[in-house]
Every structure is written in structure tokens, then in C-alpha cells.
């Protein structure tokens, strides 16, 4: 019967079906399977994706996804990820680590590929994440996924889906304590971690590459957002983690691929040094800290900085702090940047340079900021974000 109908007509009928129903149809006969999986035509897969609804791949800020146009592979990966991420704790433990890690990687890839104008991907992301026990049961966080960076990245960028609700349900202090014991543990900072929230991972060829440590960043986010009720929180959550969702991003200069130029909030939360040393004096041989009996004496401060790209640096200006990482994405040229103090600018003055450095993009999509900080521009300040975290700190263009 199917063989007597034009292919275009069958596809038009299947467009009204759910992806799982289309998969069931493909198992009815060889002709059906060939129509669904062996055709090079992407029409059916595109229509099924848009009906979920997902955003159009051609609107994606991810250039690789935008240029591929592979609707079939992407939709299959998302459906597979949804099935794995929403498994129960017991069922997830029976699956191999790579499959689960790839599922969370798919979710973060969907977030990173979401356009800022009326995004549709976020509805599916929120629905999938909130049906996962990982986002709802803090006590049953799967230890076998503790080193899964895509999961930590998703948690770092989706505080509104898990951290906010858990803190409102009385778990805020536990989340904050866990974050403190991680971030203020001095054993986490070494040459191996490049003295920051970084790690070394292996590429497909086995070569070690530099990458963000999203578990570390997740705990930094928790400390910032749970610091206190008197602190005005920066924008957070999935909607503010969409690439180029920061103010004035669409009017940025053509060479400003990272959305650097504009007014930024630099939030700093730090621990009193006596508390820091007392806490770390409890470390065992593996670097684990014992419960701290004293009070965590933390400070919080916020700076406004006007970031600018220096397109024609003078010879005496120092920008090159370190060579580009081996896994730098060469499609995005390094940006030389300076940060000007906001207080001076608000008085109509030139503004003192408080930051100087450069910005690189890594092949995994992370953006690496390497800056020297004032007053003597002799202290290194590292900041790692993904393209999706610009909106957390960027306030907008300076008038």
C-alpha cells in the first residue's frame, strides 16, 4: 500500500505524527524504513523538529550546527538524550557512562545552539531537565557522573531549574556548604588546573586539551547566588544563558564575536584569609576538608567595568599574557581587550584601565578570558565562560 503512494505524500502525512510514531512506522516494512532512514532528503526530519517545537537550525548561533543542516542526526540525538536523562536512578546506573554523558552533552549543545530571539528550545530543555532526578534529588546525585563535565555545565547554567527550587525547599545551606568546601579548597588550585577553574581533557586524538572545569564553575555560581538576601543577583537561568541574549548583543561590532564591548558587572565573593587557612588545615592526604566548626567569614563586592576591544594596540601596550591554547578555534581571532573603571566614566572622565588582556575561543565553544588586573597590571585574572554565559555578567552598552 505504501509503495503505491508518492513519497512526498507519505512524508506530508508523517509530518503530523510524533517522532516516536514515525520510528514505529519505519519498522513496518523495508520500504518504510528506507523512506525514513535511508533518504538524503531532510524535509521530514526538519518538519518533525520544528513541530516539537525546536528552533530552526539555520537560526543557530553555533556555526557548525547552522552549516550542517543535519536535522535527522540532531533530532535522533535529542530524542535519545531525553530518554536517557529522564531515566530513574536505578535504570540510569545500568547504562554505560559514555551514553549518559553524551545525553547531557546533547542538552548543553541544544542550549548553546539556541537563538536569542523567541527561543523554542528552552521549553523542551526545561521539560526534560525537570523530569530528571538529577535536577530534583540532591541526595541522589549519581556518583558515577561526578566527572561528567556536560552535566555540570548544564547545572551551572540552569540554576532556575534546580538550585532555586532546592534552596527554596530548605537545601540552600547544604548546597552552599558543598560549594564552599570545593571552591575554598586550596588543593583544587595547582599547575594542573592552571590555578583556576580549569582541567585537562583528551581530544578524539588523545591529545590533552585545555577546558573549563564546569563542576568548579557550578560551585562558584552557587556561592554567588546563595551569598545573601541583600545582594542584587545577576540575571541567571536558561533564558539568560542563551548566546547573545545580553543587552545590545545584536548591535555589536562585526569583529566582536564574543560580545565583549559594553558594561560588565564583575562580582567577587571571597573568604577571609584566616578562615581560609583554618579551613584548609583540616585537609587529609587526599585533599578532602573536614567539616568546619567556625563561621564562614565571606566578603562580597561588585565592580562595573566598561570593556573595549583594542583593535590597533601600541607596541608598548602589553596584551599578550600567554600564547593561544592549542585547542583555540582559529575561526575566531584573538581579541585584545581593556576594561575601564566605571566610576571615572560616570564623571565624564577618560576612565582608568583596570583590566588588560585577551579573549580566545576554544574548539569546544568555551570562551577563555585571560586578563591582568590593576593597579599594577601584574596579577593574573582568569575567567572562563561559554558563549551562553555572557548574559550572566553583561549589563549593556555604555551610553
TrEMBL record:
It comes from the Eukaryota. This is Uncharacterized protein. It comes from Thelephora ganbajun (Ganba fungus). The lineage of its organism: Eukaryota, Fungi, Dikarya, Basidiomycota, Agaricomycotina.
Amino acid at each position: 500500500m505504501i509503495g503505491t503512494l508518492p513519497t512526498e505524500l507519505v512524508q506530508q502525512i508523517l509530518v503530523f505524527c510524533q517522532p516516536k510514531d514515525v520510528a514505529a512506522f519505519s519498522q513496518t516494512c523495508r520500504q518504510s524504513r528506507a523512506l525514513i532512514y535511508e533518504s538524503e532528503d531532510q524535509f521530514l526530519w526538519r518538519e518533525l523538529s520544528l513541530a516539537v517545537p525546536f528552533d530552526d537550525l539555520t537560526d543557530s548561533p553555533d556555526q557548525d550546527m547552522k552549516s550542517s543542516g543535519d536535522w535527522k542526526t540532531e533530532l535522533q540525538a535529542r530524542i535519545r538524550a531525553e530518554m536517557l536523562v529522564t531515566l530513574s536512578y536505578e535504570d540510569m546506573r545500568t547504562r554505560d557512562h559514555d551514553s549518559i554523558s553524551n545525553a547531557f552533552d546533547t542538552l548543553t549543545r541544544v542550549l548553546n545552539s539556541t537563538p536569542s530571539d523567541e527561543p523554542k528550545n528552552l521549553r523542551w530543555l526545561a521539560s526534560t531537565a525537570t523530569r530528571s532526578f538529577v535536577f530534583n534529588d540532591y541526595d541522589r546525585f549519581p556518583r558515577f557522573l561526578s566527572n561528567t563535565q556536560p552535566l555540570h555545565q548544564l547545572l551551572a547554567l540552569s540554576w532556575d531549574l534546580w538550585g532555586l527550587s532546592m534552596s527554596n525547599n530548605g537545601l540552600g545551606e547544604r548546597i552552599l556548604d558543598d560549594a564552599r568546601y570545593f571552591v575554598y579548597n586550596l588543593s583544587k588550585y595547582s599547575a594542573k588546573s592552571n590555578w583556576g577553574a580549569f582541567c585537562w581533557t583528551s581530544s578524539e586524538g588523545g591529545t590533552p586539551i585545555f577546558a573549563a572545569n564546569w563542576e568548579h564553575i557550578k560551585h562558584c555560581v552557587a556561592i554567588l547566588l546563595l551569598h545573601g538576601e541583600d545582594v542584587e543577583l545577576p540575571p541567571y537561568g536558561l533564558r539568560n544563558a542563551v548566546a547573545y541574549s545580553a543587552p545590545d548583543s545584536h548591535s555589536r561590532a562585526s569583529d566582536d564575536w564574543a560580545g565583549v564591548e559594553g558594561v560588565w558587572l564583575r562580582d567577587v565573593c571571597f573568604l577571609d584569609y584566616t578562615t581560609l587557612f583554618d579551613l584548609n588545615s583540616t585537609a587529609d592526604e587526599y585533599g578532602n576538608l573536614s567539616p568546619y566548626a567556625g563561621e564562614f567569614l565571606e566578603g562580597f563586592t561588585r565592580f562595573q567595568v566598561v570593556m573595549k576591544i583594542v583593535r590597533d594596540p601600541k607596541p608598548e601596550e602589553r596584551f599578550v599574557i600567554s600564547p593561544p591554547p592549542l585547542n583555540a578555534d582559529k575561526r575566531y581571532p584573538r581579541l585584545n581587550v581593556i576594561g575601564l573603571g566605571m566610576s571615572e566614566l560616570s564623571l565624564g572622565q577618560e576612565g582608568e584601565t583596570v583590566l588588560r588582556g585577551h579573549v580566545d575561543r576554544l574548539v569546544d565553544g568555551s570562551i577563555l578570558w585571560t586578563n591582568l588586573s590593576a593597579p599594577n597590571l601584574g596579577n593574573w585574572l582568569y575567567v572562563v565562560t561559554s558563549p551562553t554565559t555572557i548574559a550572566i555578567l553583561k549589563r549593556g552598552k555604555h551610553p
